[in-house]
Design brief:
The chain has 15 helices and 10 strands. With 379 residues, the chain is of the alpha/beta class.
Length: 379
């Protein structure tokens, strides 16, 4: 095997140095312990040191398998786990369960797992909330750093205000540019202003970018991020990721634009948020951003092969943000309907997207029409 050595970056102001490729634990649930053992061994051999899991991954099975694989290697890694508990009692119980399964007496980073609603941040921060156990764990040396992850990015702003965070965790890939641009435009600058570390997840878009491993990592590593937690669960997948991250050189702005232009997963349907189709009467990029929040712009009404169709069906509602997207779309709906009924042409798209067809489909999705409205063609 090639003698890969993964580069490292500082994890914000935590004092921790982390390999830019991290081992994510979700997909270790899907394979046996012997595979996890081999995977961890190869990852450590390549100078990887960031291993992340969660208490609810397989009801603790991911933590257990990783704990077995890390015997004798605990001091070589930055070990991370998460809890979905929002009360002090529940979080404390899960911390101790995590430590037992991982066969360690401390975590380098412990995260509030997948913040979903504003009320959760409030519950965590109030008396009796999970923040009490996070503070206690830090004081007793059971946790070095505290962080939060989410699938609704703007929740990280109140979390940064209300909770004592050292790191934040969110998606980092080129689908984010198209669907959740606020992550790069708002959340990353706010985190860096506070000196927080940034953990990127899903650099290959939950496997959707499997055709584009090298450009996907090239793009992701150029963003404001310290480590990319990737869900490989075989040595073959790991080798492909290692080759991509160990050959990385910072791309130019022109190269990043080229990746967005040529990405096969984006093609001539997904809006790149370049802003060139904005109109006085309607900001089309905002509409397409909401379509991205609805289903990641994965349903385009075109025939495809069975594996691609199955992957899109699994991932399009992965983050369960449809209701939020539809609510945010309400102020646009009447204007879009008026525009669709007009005969005036829409602006040309530099990526070859048929904007009228796309707008028809986005409107149908975001108004929850049981059928595509009369006049929508090509589906």
């Amino acid at each position: 095997m090639p003698d890969f050595k993964i580069p490292r970056r500082p994890l914000g102001n935590t004092g921790l140095m982390v390999s830019v490729l991290g081992l994510g634990g979700f997909h270790q649930v899907e394979v046996g312990g012997d595979y996890v053992q081999a995977l961890v061994g190869r990852y450590l051999e390549a100078d990887g040191n960031y291993i992340e899991t969660a208490r609810n991954y397989g009801n603790g099975s991911s933590e257990y398998k990783l704990g077995q694989a890390l015997r004798g290697h605990r001091d070589q890694v930055v070990l991370v786990s998460k809890t979905g508990q929002r009360t002090a009692e529940g979080a404390w119980r899960e911390l101790n369960e995590s430590l037992e399964a991982l066969q360690t007496d401390y975590l380098d980073v412990w995260l509030y797992h997948c913040l979903t609603q504003p009320e959760e941040v409030e519950t965590i921060a109030r008396p009796g909330g999970a923040a009490e156990s996070f503070a206690r764990a830090r004081e007793e040396g059971m946790v070095r750093c505290v962080g939060a992850s989410t699938h609704w990015p703007m929740l990280l702003l109140p979390a940064m205000e209300s909770l004592e965070l050292d790191v934040v965790m969110y998606w980092v890939n080129y689908l984010v540019t198209c669907n959740y641009p606020e992550l790069y435009q708002v959340i990353a600058p706010a985190a860096r202003q506070r000196g927080l570390g940034i953990i990127g997840m899903k650099p290959l878009g939950d496997g959707y970018l499997h055709r584009s491993v090298k450009p996907a990592f090239e793009y992701a590593l150029a963003q404001e991020v310290d480590v990319l937690a990737c869900g490989f669960n075989s040595v073959e997948m790991l080798e492909a990721d290692l080759e991509a991250v160990c050959s990385w050189e910072r791309p130019t702005a022109e190269r990043l634009e080229e990746i967005l232009r040529d990405a096969p997963e984006l093609g001539d349907y997904v809006c790149r948020q370049c802003g060139k189709c904005a109109m006085p009467e309607l900001d089309l990029p905002n509409v397409f951003e909401l379509e991205g929040k609805f289903d990641q712009q994965m349903f385009d009404g075109r025939p495809t092969d069975a594996p691609d169709y199955a992957l899109r069906q699994r991932l399009r509602y992965w983050f369960n943000n449809q209701a939020r997207a539809m609510e945010l779309y309400k102020p646009y709906a009447a204007r879009v309907q008026t525009l669709l009924q007009a005969s005036a042409p829409l602006p040309p798209c530099p990526y070859g997207i048929d904007l009228r067809r796309k707008l028809e489909l986005a409107h149908a999705k975001l108004t929850s029409s049981p059928q595509f409205p009369e006049g929508v063609t090509g589906f």
